[in-house]
UniProtKB/TrEMBL annotation, chain A:
Keywords: CF(0), Coiled coil, Hydrogen ion transport, Ion transport, Membrane, Transmembrane, Transmembrane helix, Transport. GO terms for cellular component: proton-transporting ATP synthase complex. This is ATP synthase subunit b', chloroplastic. PANTHER family: ATP SYNTHASE SUBUNIT B', CHLOROPLASTIC. Belongs to the ATPase B chain family. One of its GO terms (molecular function) is proton-transporting ATPase activity, rotational mechanism. Residues 129-212 form a coiled coil. The keyword rRNA processing does not apply. It is a single-pass membrane protein. Transmembrane segments: none annotated.
UniProtKB/TrEMBL annotation, chain B:
Pfam families: ATP-synt_A. This is ATP synthase subunit a, chloroplastic. The chain crosses the membrane at residues 35-56, 95-115, 135-154, 191-213, 219-240. The gene is atpI. Gene3D superfamilies: ATP synthase, F0 complex, subunit A. It is a multi-pass membrane protein. Keywords: ATP synthesis, CF(0), Chloroplast, Hydrogen ion transport, Ion transport, Membrane, Plastid, Thylakoid, Transmembrane, Transmembrane helix, Transport.
Amino acid sequence: MAVIPCRASSARSSSGRVPAIRGAADQKVRVRYNCAFFQEALQNVALKVSQNPTVRKAAFLAMNTLWAIPAIAEEAEEKGKIFDFNLTLPIIVAEFLLLMLALDNLWFKPVAKVMDERDEAIRQKLMGVRDNSDEIKKLQEQAEAILKAARAETTAELNKMRRETAASLDAKLQESRQRVEKELAEALANLESQKEETLRSLDKQVQELSDQIVAKVIPF
Amino acid sequence: MQIEQLQIFEIDNPHQVSSVEVGQHFYWQIGNLQVHAQVLITSWVVIALLIALPVVATRNLQTIPTGLQNFIEYVLEFIRDLTRTQMGEEEYRPWVPFIGTMFLSIFVSNWSGALLPWRVIQLPHGELAAPTNDINTTVALALLTSVAYFYAGLHKRGFSYFGKYIQPTPVLLPINILEDFTKPLSLSFRLFGNILADELVVAVLVSLVPLIVPVPMMLLGLFTSAIQALISATLAAAYIGESMEGHH
């Protein structure tokens, strides 16, 4: 059974209550008195507890934990704290500021320069592209004008050609018609003369024939 | 945190069964002041990483970017966008280095604490971890943010900056003054609590079931620590923007 160590020896103080003695020895005696009193009370409790086995085990565990607490307290103080502020704080501040300067000069400035130059170049190219489209429009208009002029010219030429050929065609047509008419007239005249001739010869033949017929028909 | 390996027959006291000790520091003595050396060492590693990256990547900058240059341009674009969103188009340029350093240092600190195998290096006392798991770091960053937004307000508006304390109505004066204390407090504790708690949870899980079970928690830790970096930077930019803007 655990025993609270008292300053006084347990043998003497367990003998009973000691009357208070005044003077320099007061404090010591009071300690002994209190110690002895508690010890006695505890021993009474212990007697009661030791009669019940489960309570005894629980008390054993509790007492051991109670013993452990002072040990834990000592170790915590010895080993360090979570909220321990010291020179580390200003050193970290200084490190952060130096890191900021270093990163700014090594990383942010050069990379920002490259990125901004790239943006600028792209913007320039875009502007250039927009100017080109105006020129293209002008060239397109010129091309259309030329085309229109060329078309007009060709149609004029075409019309002229058409008229000329039509005129010459007409002339030729007229000429050939006249020739044809002339030949026709000649041929008709020829035919007429031939007809006259045949008619005349026919007349003569008819006369002869009729004389023969008469001669044959009318016997003498 | 130190996690003790415990054999079952060695238990003397119940408190030994589960003990994860937090707040162990590796002390260096400078003059008659102490520093947390583990924080300084890990912060030097973070600074080395953050300086090595642009030095390597800006060696041959081209108009059409490839590979690493693409990545650092993306990061700068992200930081610029973040700053511009909070502070507006006209005034964000001078603050990009500050917000960028805030974001990058917290991000790399947190991820280095989660990803790099610090336990390989044994310290005599305490152990190496993310530098942001120490209250000194986070309070340092929060105080820098406070100073930054005060400076921004005073630089832009002169002493009429103090008119913002009675801005919507003078009744809110105590609340506005209180805000000047709660802003850095919340900034520091948000970051500190997140990182330290994540480390604690992962440490406890690893001490119980080292194999697969801690992995989702570690992934969550990566995610939340990245978010914390973003939040810290965004809030810093928001406070600076708020103190620079005029009356609504």
